[in-house]
From TrEMBL:
Keywords of the record: Coiled coil, Cytoplasm, Cytoskeleton, Microtubule
Transmembrane helix among keywords: no
Domain (NUDE) ranges: 20-81
Compartments where found: Cytoplasm, Cytoskeleton
Naturally occurring in which organism (per UniProt): Gigaspora rosea
Annotated GO biological process: centrosome localization; chromosome segregation; establishment of mitotic spindle orientation; microtubule nucleation; vesicle transport along microtubule
One GO cellular component term: microtubule
Coiled-coil intervals: 14-65
Protein name: NUDE domain-containing protein
Keyword Cytoplasm: yes
Family of this protein: Belongs to the nudE family.
MF (Gene Ontology): microtubule binding
Amino acid sequence: MTIYISITAAKILLQRSRKQYNKAIEQNVILENKIEGKNQLIIQVQRLKDELKDMNIELAIMKNKEDGEYGPLPMSTAAPVQKSTKYSHYTLGKTDALLDPNSNPVKMVQEMVGRVKFSVCN
């Protein structure tokens, strides 16, 4: 009789263990899906930031053309390039100056045009 009780107790314990194991697997799958979703959102946010930056540059160029202001700024008035920030590993190869929300996109574009004109002339 004690052998029968021991076998029954072992079966009950095994069933409980299987339920806990299956529940843990389900929770791991849910957490992995949440992590993957978060990673995709991070990528999407970075793309949107890049797109916004590009649109701001385009807008600044359009405003600049409307005002009749052409030509690059002198190199001495151009904004200095900053060194890396703590978020520079998220930039996917972009320079920190391009990602700086306080930088002037008009000045950046004018500086780029000035560099291109300088390199073409030389």
